[in-house]
Amino acid sequence: MKVEEFNSKKIYSDVSGVSSYIDKRIKIELNSYGLYEEIVDTDISGDISPLVRKVSPYLNSKLSVCDVARTLFSRYENIKNDVRIGYYQSLFVGYVKEGEYRVNASSGGMGTWIFKELFEKGLIDGVIHVKENPDKKSSTLFKYGISKTIEEIKSGAKTKYYPVELSEVLDLVKNCKGKYAIVGIPSFIESIRLLALNDTIIKDRIIFTVGLICGHQKSSKFADYMAWQVGIKPGDLKNIDFRHKLDNARADSYAIKMTGIIDGKTKTIIKSKNNLSGQNWGLGYFKPLASDFTDDVFNETADIVVGDAWLPEYQNDSNGNNIVIIRNPIINDIVTEAISEGRLIMNDVDSDTIFKSQAAHFRHTFDELSYRKYKKDNNNLWYPINRVNAENEISFLRGKVQDIRMEISSKSHEYFKMAVDKDDLSFFENKMKILNNKYKIIYYLMAIQGKGLAGIIKIIIGKLKK
């Protein structure tokens, strides 16, 4: 692959860092927008390694997510397949009862718990997961690391809405013998699977994968924006807990806990996400372009997938619950045994229940990806090949939703950088308010279209009475 071709397509990469691991001439750096970027000098000698095309999901046109998943899981006895969620042995909704895994988790505690089980049973020697950056002088708050004790494993609990990459930790794996389990978003896990097909050391050492369900990635500026709203200016944020649980609140009404410098003093502030701007995931603040061109909602190449149980019957439980998709029989045996022992509280569910927990996410990521690709075709722009065909078969207003979402994502990066340069948070918020209002108008029009004017008036009267 020529350097020019790689550079023209890298904006669609989720920048897992696997390309840099393969070809050391590809550097990974956080750019001025707080997103990891693959940097390749245009005057480097020779072409980029042909392996880069093979290990990058957005460049590999020969193996789809389905192909990789089929190779991994179709051979297992009693394996089932759902076109929406992929292969599965078992499907559950619930939480970890033993210990404090649930208390210290974003939701039900299953992610950290399964690592603990694999480690205690001697199936792995370490866990590859996202932790606080040990270099406190660095402005990067989180990075991938390896944990080799239970306490270290627990330190990686909770979701981090923050950019990370794998190149450094993969070098550690290659130089440190052992068996590892890794956690990651769909594109990262698929990259690891593709890498394992081409690198025997990685195949032999990363033997379990734990997948997260990811609405979309965020730049590091998302954390900065949350902190700036409570008085911690960009550059002064020292630590952030994106999913701080609140007692007696709905599962989706968590808080953000931030520690940073305000007026020369270190302060910790806890703020409900409902009182912070930019928390509406549908708006897509600080979303990289690559997140809009993936079709893998349920992390189809992971051995086990954990996500939030965004289901009505679980929403009022402030402690949180996980949906769990299990594909690997070894992990399936571990989980079912723990359920029988009462260490896990899990309900068997069907694929429809799992799908409903992420229905809105699926509609945007998979169903309406066809429209986003159609728009690229109209402008003669390249985009990654995946299972979704470019078509304009959604309604006019749903198309407008997609248009404004992409505009909001793009402009949020630009306007925030300008706001930081001006040292003026209101600049960003005023600019984004105009786009947010356009978004709201489209949804009002869809509501009128769905319920009719009489229905809308009835809703308004009901709200006024309340």
TrEMBL record:
Annotated Coenzyme F420 hydrogenase/dehydrogenase beta subunit N-terminal domain residues = 92-170
Q: Name one GO molecular function term.
A: oxidoreductase activity, acting on CH or CH2 groups, with an iron-sulfur protein as acceptor
Pfam families, per database record: FrhB_FdhB_C, FrhB_FdhB_N
Q: Which positions fall inside the Coenzyme F420 hydrogenase/dehydrogenase beta subunit C-terminal domain?
A: 179-350
| Matches recorded under InterPro entries | Co_F420_Hydgase/DH_bsu_N, FRHB/FDHB/HCAR-like, FrhB_FdhB_C
Q: What is this protein called?
A: Coenzyme F420 hydrogenase
